Every structure is written in structure tokens, then in C-alpha cells.
Amino acid sequence: MFSHRASGILMHISSLPSSYGIGDLGPCAYQFVDFLVKSKQRYWQILPVNPTDGINGHSPYSSNSAYAGNPLLISPDLLLEDKWISKKDLRHCPQFPQASIDYSQVISWKVRLLKAAFATFRRQGQNAAFEKFCSQQDHWLNDFALFVVAKEKFQGRTWSSWPIGMKLRNERELQRLSEKYFDQLQKIKFEQFLFYSQWAHLKAYCKRQGVDLIGDMPIYVNYDGADVWKDPKLFKLDKNLKLKFVSGVPPDYFSKTGQRWGNPVYDWARLKKTKYEWWIARIRHNLMLFDYLRIDHFRGFAGFWQIPAHEKIAIYGRWVKAPGKDFFKTLLKRLGKIPIIAEDLGYITPDVIDLLKDFQLPGMRVLLFAFDDYSKGNPHHPENYPKNCVVYTGTHDNNTVQGWFQKDASWQAKENVMKHLGHPVGRDVHWDFIQIVMKSMAQTAIIPLQDILGLGEEARVNRPSTTYRNWEWRLRPSQLKAQMTAKLTKLTKSTKRA
């Protein structure tokens, strides 16, 4: 799928530096693209850009919509440039922390800022670009806006406990809500218009600079979100539309008791009858945003871990088959080329391997997983990387290389690292790992920025199965030094990835 031997950097937009408490789609993002170009990187991989619901510590993998963009990523600088706000609106910007995200502070300030932008929009009257956007995105936008407004109207209650008319989407009730809360609905749509407009400009800049965007799509959606409210029959719910089963994984590297994610699982039999229209629309939408799409928990297309909703521990689930081959055949017929990266980590069975081979989809390899089990049978051992794969030093779920080596690695794992390197490990163990990945057979190498910077555990983005202090790390502008850029450029050229 990847036609060139190349490399890139994993760095979420929220982690970019800015003056507004959180990374956004403004100047900081364009400067990061320039850094990628200077250091000869072809790919910028990011995490999901959907709204975060705050339930799971503002995880980008937990959202009330599979389509909407996160308003927190809208750039105040670009709002000013496009005259949606004035300099006066930015005058009382708080003093945000520079190295982390204070979500409560960011949300409080950006809500006020977007309210000011919407006031300008209303004063200007009809806007042809906005109307065109609403028309093009009508297949999800109106339902999303209705969901957000109804959620607020019913004091944050889960949609399945709303009054029966709204719960079951009675046409008369929806129309009544649309008329009564017209302004609120317009504001939500306007925020999405701003996000998508800023995104389109950034993507166009990436394309001009020769940088491809790798997006990330969770396989599951949240139960209490617009997608399940709109299409409840596509999920395994009971007669009252409550959760019957939930998603998760059995015990693995990250948890001895498995992980209970709590998302509804799909009714694949019903999806198959619809020729997978829901999934095709979702993937088509994501491929409009990104050049390549990493699908999180890809193995769920072959078989998924189904946990009875009343069980609190994932270990009580069971494997259920999914129609992966039929689904991807249909996807190929409808969309043609499918530039998908399969997140195939964890417990992988032969049917998942067959799925990757049949559709020539690249899987993932993670170098941090190579040294606890240093056997030749370990797929993460550098000698086992196929050409058609994407190799990482670590992912957003891992500790940094420095953090792993200093805090997590067993003495045996450290011995295995030194055995592989052929020399003792010094302070630059992160560069040792980067070199292994860059020199490997893998067509594509992706390095988290924290590893390039040689940062420790304090720069970890996520700790699976916890919600404390996740998704808060931010890059400081002073950390991207010219010397480091030159070193990365030299390595990229020498490994023929430039």
C-alpha cells in the first residue's frame, strides 16, 4: 500500500504548542508541517479528531460522534484572521500552562470565544459557504446537532432515558426541537463549519508540502452518542435500547484482567443485510480527511470480545466471529483503493492474519514489544518485520522509550536490548531504538515525537485502563532544536527514507 520507503512522526494536534492552552489547527500546526519537511519526514500521524466527551479523561477515542470535529482544536488565530472574532476577544486570554492541557480552563475560554464568533456569523446573515457545508454534511450534521441540544435539554441524561418521543426519534418531536432551538443548532453546525474549514486548509498545505496525513479511527463508537441514537438497530441492544453487550479485550500486555471498554458491539448480521452502508459512509468520510487511515483494534473485523453488559470485568466475555472478508470485499468494490493501516496488536488469531494477507493491508510492529520476549517467533522482533508493515518505537498507549527503559523494562529486557545493539546502553537509548526502526525492512517507520526528543515517563500521553493525567502532554516550542532536526534528517537520508 505504501509505495515509498519513508518515515514520519506521531504527534497529536492537541499536543502542539500554542498560546491558547491546547494545540490547534492554526500556526502551530503549519510550523509542525514545516518541521516535518525540514527533517525529510513524509507522514504526520495523529490521533482521532472527534469531540472528546470528558468521560474518559478527554480521550480522543471517546466521543459523542464518529463524524464531528473537536471544537477545542479550532484555532483562535485563524478565527481572527478570518474576521470571525476581533483582537478585543483575545485580549483577556488566560495564562495557560505551556507543558500540559488544563481542559476545564481551555473549555471555559474557548466556549466564550466560539460564542463571540457565532455572534459575528449571525450579524453577517446568510453565508453561502456555510450553507454548502451543511448541505454536503447533512447525512450526519443535523443529527449530531440535535443530539447535543437534546442532551443539554435533558440535563446530560443518556439518550435511552430521554422522553419516549426523543428516544425513538419521533419526527414531530424532532421537528419541534429543531424549531424551538434553532439558534443553538445553528451554533453547533457553525462550529463544525469552522473546524472543517480550518482542517481543509491545513490538509491542502500538507499536500503542497508533500506531507501525508495518517488519521486514526476507533473501531467502536460510544453508546451515548449521536451515531447509536440515530441507528440503534445496528448495535446489540435490548428491547429498551439499553446495552446488551459491551466491547473490550481479554487479558493482555496492558491488563491482567483484560479491558472493559463499554462501547456497544455491532450487530454484524444486520450490517451485512444493509451491505455495510453505515461502515462504508464512515470510512469514506475519514478518507476525505486523511490520506491514510489507521483503524484501532482492527482484529474486531475478524472476531471481537463480547462482554455481557452487566459484567464489570472483561474476563467474563467471549469471542464472537465477524464477517471480515465479506466486509472488506464490499468495501473494495465500493471505495476502490483502501489506504488502511491495521492496528493488529494484542491477541491475534489466524483469521486476522488471513484478513491482512487477502487484502494486502499493512499491520503494525512495536519495537518496545520486542525485548521482553526476544525469541525469533515474536512478530515485534526486528528480524521479523515484513516489508508491508508500519513499525513504531512505541504508540500513544506505551511509555516513551526512555520511560520504558528507566521504569518499566525488566533486567532481562535490558539485557536483550544490549544483546541486540551489541554495546552497552547509554543516555541515548531512544536514538538506538529510532535507528533500529529506521534501518528495518519495514516500508514505513513512525516515531512518536517524545522519542525523538528523548523524553521520559513525564511525556507519556496515555496509560491504558486509567483516566488520571492522560492526553495532557504538550510540546514546548523550545524543544524542537535545529541540532535535533539535522540529526533526524541525516538518519532519514542514510536509511533511504527521505
Describe this structure in words.
The chain is α/β, with parallel strands linked by helices and 498 residues long. The protein has one domain (6-494): Alpha-Beta Barrel (TIM Barrel), CATH 3.20.20. 40% of the residues lie in helices and 11% in strands. The protein has 19 helices and 12 strands. The protein has helices spanning 27-38, 76-81, 87-90, 103-124, 128-136, 141-153, 164-167, 171-180, 182-209, 226-230, 268-273, 277-289, 324-335, 350-358, 401-408, 411-421, 429-439, 449-453, 482-494; strands at residues 6-10, 43-45, 212-218, 245-249, 259-264, 292-296, 303-308, 318-321, 340-342, 363-366, 389-392, 444-448. The strands form 2 sheets. It has an 8-stranded parallel beta sheet. Strand 1 (6-10), helix 1 and strand 2 form a beta-alpha-beta unit. Helix 1 (27-38) runs parallel beside helix 9 (182-209) and helix 6 packs across helix 9 (182-209). The chain starts with 5 loop residues before the first strand and ends with a helix. The model has no long low-confidence stretch (mean pLDDT 96).
Brief description of this entry?
The protein has one domain: Alpha-Beta Barrel (TIM Barrel). The chain is an alpha/beta fold and 498 residues long.
